[in-house]
Amino acid sequence: MRIEKYDSGGLKQFLDSELYRNMPYVPVSSQRAESWLHNPRLSPRDILLYVAFEGEEMIAYRCILPDRHRDISFGWLSGNWVRPDHRRKGLASMLFEEANADWGHHLMYTNYAPESKAVYDKSGRFGLYHERPGMRYYQRSSAAGLLGNRRPIYQRSRLLLTLADGMLNLVQDIRIRVRREKLQGLDFEEHAKVELEALDFLEKNEGTGFCLRGLEEFDWITSWPWIKEGAEKDARYFFSSLAPAFRNICLKIRDAQGVMAGFLWLVVKGGGMTLPYAVFRPGISSDVSRLISHYMQSGRISYLTTYQSPFINIFTPGPILGKRIMIQNYFATRDLLRQLPDPGTIRFQDGDGDVVFV
Known about the structure:
- By secondary structure, the protein is an alpha+beta fold.
- Helices cover 32% and strands 29% of the residues.
- Helix 4 crosses helix 5.
């Protein structure tokens, strides 16, 4: 067994290689790799990808997304995989230890699978940096999509789940049509990316999050997404790359005097919606609630997931099927924790970390 490490130059060569073209499964999709290479915070020496090979066969990999908080550089643990017949052999831990050493014990993670967290817990190298309570609002039933691929019992019941979704949504669509949110008197603009006026508003209201992103970083996120709209998935790649619907919606909201008073960034992926960035003044709370409800209803969104506590506190959704409490945790290596500021002094955003892409 050998471990190959790819920085930006090595990754370009790997993507153009015969090895990559002929692999039965790949550690990164071409579009996600292109996004990595356009990261404004990427250093030429940053290792982005660790791949374990047995002969010419890939048996495990680990991905890192470079980032920083002010002048503190670190990497987000951003996806790992071990071939099923090589699991429970310590490969995930081995690749993690390689990454941890190369990154100077400066790593963070969020949006993790239970299996990944077990590896990090076993290492004993991490501590909880910040916990954010959130909420998921279910507007339309999507049991077939949410549960259909999780366990064999759900896979066998997929047809029944689909029929149940259809019956529930038939009734729910009538309820939404009757109580559809109207936008009369609401002054807002829709854009596909963050503009200078919106960035200025975010910065003045301390809304650029823990990652303190600027216009260059925001342009990177909207111009080089990891997920694109489409129906066919690359069977060689096990993580998300396509969705039936994918859209960035950046909303600038103005008050009665025409002054910008709020900014909302919505991401629609399939039937789900997230809210990576949200900053608004108290005087327009009702407008914010109406606007989100409108986009949920007009987009036939199945569920909205958010950890934006100012928004959760004022949101009065239209007809929904239910809601569920969610938790978003940020972990950092102990060496990094000693350098990071008190999280209570930071206004976190849902888009902090690699989650802004997924």
